[in-house]
């Protein structure tokens, strides 16, 4: 069985969504393209956005990762502008948005009124309350390696509706099958069912 990796940075993984760095040429597998808050070049924002727009081709599954990060040095207002512009690109090309968010969940929620496509918070590792608030605003959550050992996160996963989550390796080095296995235990469903559910969820966000 093959296990879809929703967000990763490794060229050797063929089954999943490879996050293309800004300026990089995408390969022939599925990818996402966006400006990570830490990669915003304040003197060349328009060029960067144009590059994102021009890198969108048939294999582009989503815009991202993009979003808000309170720990990077880029001014928050600039981060919000660049995030909004990427939401607008996603609206225009009708593709989902993969979101990077560090301690800015309620600001990210405020952008839902601008977005016409599915929004997925990647690398979610926060508490139940934040998960509930995000779900109430129609976000999807993608979970990574932390699920293997973080009990509070396992609790979040147990409670999340099955049609609202994805699984990813991001830049961690481990086999995604381990994560699928863990989720099958946590949710009390078979590995095949986890796999089918993820594929169904992909289908849903792809079609808006
Ligand atoms: Zn990432």
What is the N-to-C order of secondary-structure elements (H for helix, E for strand)? EEEHEHEHEHEHEHH
Percent of residues in helices comes to: 25-40%
> What is the fourth-level CATH superfamily?
Metal-dependent hydrolases
Structure ligands? zinc ion
Q: How many β-strand runs?
A: 8
Short recap of the structure:
This protein has 208 residues and is an alpha/beta fold. It has helices spanning 45-55, 76-93, 105-109, 128-136, 151-159, 176-187, 191-206, and strands spanning 5-8, 16-20, 31-33, 60-69, 97-102, 119-121, 140-143, 165-167. Helix 1 packs parallel to helix 2 (76-93).
Describe this structure in words.
With 208 residues, this protein is an alpha/beta fold. It has a single domain, classed as TIM Barrel (Alpha-Beta Barrel). It has seven helices and eight strands, in the order βββαβαβαβαβαβαα. The protein has an eight-stranded parallel beta sheet with strand order 1-2-3-4-5-6-7-8, sandwiched between helices. The longest helix is centred in the middle third of the chain and has 18 residues. The chain starts with a strand and ends with a helix. The relative contact order is 0.14. The chain binds zinc ion (ZN). The site of zinc ion (ZN) has 6 residues, from loops. Zinc ion binds next to loops.
């Amino acid at each position: 069985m093959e296990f879809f990796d929703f967000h990763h940075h490794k060229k050797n993984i063929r089954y999943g969504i490879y996050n293309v760095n800004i300026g990089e040429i995408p390969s022939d597998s599925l990818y996402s393209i966006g400006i990570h808050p830490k990669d915003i070049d304040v003197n060349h924002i328009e060029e960067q956005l144009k590059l994102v727009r021009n890198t969108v081709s048939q294999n582009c599954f989503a815009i991202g990762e993009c979003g808000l990060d309170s720990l990077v040095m880029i001014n928050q207002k600039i981060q919000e502008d660049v995030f909004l512009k990427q939401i607008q690109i996603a609206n225009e090309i009708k593709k989902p948005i993969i979101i990077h968010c560090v301690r800015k969940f309620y600001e990210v929620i405020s952008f839902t009124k601008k977005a016409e496509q599915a929004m997925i918070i990647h690398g979610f590792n926060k508490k139940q309350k934040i998960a509930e608030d995000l779900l109430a605003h129609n976000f999807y959550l993608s979970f990574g390696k932390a699920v293997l050992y973080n009990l509070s996160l396992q609790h979040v996963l147990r409670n999340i509706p099955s049609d609202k989550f994805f699984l990813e390796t991001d830049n961690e080095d481990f086999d995604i099958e381990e994560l699928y296995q863990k989720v099958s235990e946590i949710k009390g469903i078979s590995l095949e069912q986890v796999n089918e559910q993820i594929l169904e969820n992909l289908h849903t966000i792809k079609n808006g």
